[in-house]
Write a structure and sequence with these properties.
The structure is a single chain. This protein has 541 residues and is α/β, with parallel strands linked by helices. Among the domains are: 191 residues, Rossmann fold (3-Layer(aba) Sandwich); 75 residues, Luciferase, domain 3 (Roll), CATH 2.30.38; 92 residues, GMP Synthetase, Chain A, domain 3, CATH 3.30.300.30. 32% of the residues lie in helices and 25% in strands. It is built from 15 helices and 25 strands. An eight-stranded mixed beta sheet has the order 2-1-10-9-11-12-13-14, sandwiched between helices. α3 crosses α4 and α10 crosses α12.
Length: 541
């Protein structure tokens, strides 16, 4: 590299840093002129990680400010800080700490938030489990990630016999109170000293799960996060300090988790429910005057599909942002949402691996419905053809590659995504228009995205052909107005088989996560194949 090239890189990095700081100042993350408060925030996040660090600073800023509102009511940042101190202390006394892996199989509520914060204070690694797991996925992930302790909601008790008996168990949410052999978080917290613990030598980080090439969830670790990386969201999404965010997306999902962390860092109240309900969401937004609503497209679809008389019951004029991510947002749905709530839809494109890639602002969406927008500060997006040559012309489809301070460094099993010029493959294909707006045209493999979840067809197909009364099976994704895509299975039965559509669905439901269950089943005499025996999926519809 020449001196001139090196100087250019340094100058570009400096400019990017200055822009990032300005974005954070505008949002309220850098409290000018109180730079000492900003430094305390950086130190806290470095010591405890993003969950506990952000909560600790918010509690110090205003001990009376409400941190979360869940099904049980409000908790202040100070109460969350104290209670997570007690939980961390209790776990430390039980032998958990640096090197431990604490898995959370929880819906959105205070027990999950406290688990997230206490893990950071211990320096333990937090593993966020998908609440839609069937037993085989749950068992495989727990074993691969080396889970030490499991925090779970009572409704998931039926999965627990799939993991080793030596994994410690803790109940985060109890549906039937009283008489539990398993320790309950609320009881542990109430009986333990809530003084702060000594800071760990380093934060344990956390692991998000994503589907892999076989459909088995892979671990995407985040050992640490840069404070400047928050500018990647704030650059194009106008979140502001001291407001309120309604969290519709689950916290185990990258969409919900990223906005939860950012809202806490801004000292915003986060309103959440254990289970999503479209009308209850509107009521929560109106009651708590939420300025931001975080959803996956399926949730937004259910909200705008409510009868007009139901939607009109709630004053949602406080909304400035509807943050949508997790799967493709159709032009029709985005347009309907903007018509209902005003020009507030912000469409983020990213993935568990690359984190943020681009964001479409309401202005972008007006210009080009369906776009995923532009890369914010700190991010780079480029398209490459199959030979690895960069594509610069508009309306030419190529593979999408992303560079971001939030991108992961590889899966927990040692594998990684393809990298070109320092950019990470997103697994999608797309194109830019003349204005530089990005559009996603599809995946560069056969992955199906249904309701924000990734499904690889071969996993469902392999499961179906394990049945003695199934000869062949193929699964594809077909367009769905609610879920983006839905799964459709094509099945060739053995002679005399009585297997019907419900039987196929129930079998998949018993063995795989519910989002992998085909909503349609069609029985064929044979699957269309080419000369080499490959199924011709284009002939299936």
């Amino acid at each position: 590299m020449s001196v001139a090239e090196l100087a250019g890189q340094v100058a570009g990095k400096l400019t990017e840093t200055v822009r990032s700081v300005e974005v954070m100042r505008r949002a309220g993350l850098v409290p000018f002129p109180r730079l000492d408060e900003g430094l305390r925030s950086l130190v806290a996040i470095r010591k405890y990680g993003p969950f506990a660090g952000a909560n600790h600073i918010a509690a110090r800023r205003d001990s009376t400010a409400v941190g979360i509102v869940d099904d049980l009511g409000p908790l202040t940042f100070k109460q969350l800080d104290d209670q997570s101190n007690a939980l961390a202390r209790a776990w430390s006394q039980r032998g958990l700490g640096p090197g431990s892996v604490i898995a959370a199989l929880c819906r959105d509520h205070r027990g999950l938030v406290l688990t997230m914060a206490a893990s950071g204070k211990l320096g333990a690694r937090l593993l966020l489990m998908n609440t839609g797991f069937a037993k085989p996925q749950f068992a495989d992930v727990a074993k691969r990630e080396g889970v030490t302790a499991l925090v779970y909601d009572q409704e998931f008790t039926g999965l627990l016999d799939a993991i080793d008996e030596d994994v410690e168990r803790y109940l985060a949410w109890v549906d039937q109170p009283g008489g539990h052999e398993i320790p309950v978080l609320a009881e542990i917290i109430a009986s333990t000293d809530d003084r702060p613990m000594p800071a760990p030598a380093k934060p344990g980080g956390f692991v998000l799960l994503t589907s892999g090439t076989t459909g088995t969830p892979k671990g995407a670790p985040r050992p640490h996060t840069s404070a400047l990386a928050s500018a990647q969201f704030l650059d194009r999404i106008p979140l502001r300090s001291g407001e309120a965010t309604y969290m519709g997306a689950p916290l185990f999902h990258g969409t919900g988790l990223s906005q939860f962390i950012l809202s806490f860092a801004l000292g915003c109240t986060v309103v959440m429910r254990r289970k999503f309900d479209p009308e209850a969401t509107l009521k929560g937004v109106a009651t708590h005057r939420c300025t931001a609503l975080v959803l996956v497209p399926t949730m937004l679809q259910r909200i705008v599909d409510l009868p007009k008389e139901v939607r009109d019951r709630y004053d949602t004029s406080c909304l400035r942002i509807i943050f949508v991510a997790g799967s493709a947002l159709s032009p029709d749905l985005g347009n309907r949402a903007n018509e209902e709530f005003g020009d507030v839809v912000h469409n983020l494109y990213g993935s568990t691996e690359v984190a943020v890639a681009t964001v479409a602002t309401p202005e972008d969406w007006k210009r080009a419905p369906g776009t995923v927008g532009r890369a914010p500060v700190g991010c780079r997006v480029a398209l490459y053809d199959e030979r690895g040559t960069k594509i610069t012309a508009p309306h030419v489809t190529g593979r999408v590659f992303v560079g971001s301070g939030l991108s992961f460094g590889g899966y927990t099993d040692g594998r990684n995504k393809e990298i070109i010029d320092g950019l990470l493959s997103s697994g999608d294909v797309g194109h830019f228009d003349e204005d530089g707006l990005l559009f996603i045209d599809g995946r560069d493999d056969e992955m199906i995205v249904s309701g924000g979840e990734n499904v690889f067809p071969i996993e469902v197909e392999n499961l179906l052909v394990e049945r003695e009364d199934v000869l062949e099976a193929a699964v594809i994704g077909v367009e769905d107005p609610d879920f983006g895509e839905r799964l459709k299975a094509f099945v060739v039965r053995t002679e005399g088989s009585t297997l019907d559509e419900d039987g196929v669905r129930e079998y998949v439901k018993a063995n795989l996560a519910r989002y992998k269950v085909p909503r349609e089943v069609e029985f064929l005499e044979e699957l269309p194949r080419n000369a080499t025996g490959k199924v011709l999926r284009t002939k299936l519809s």
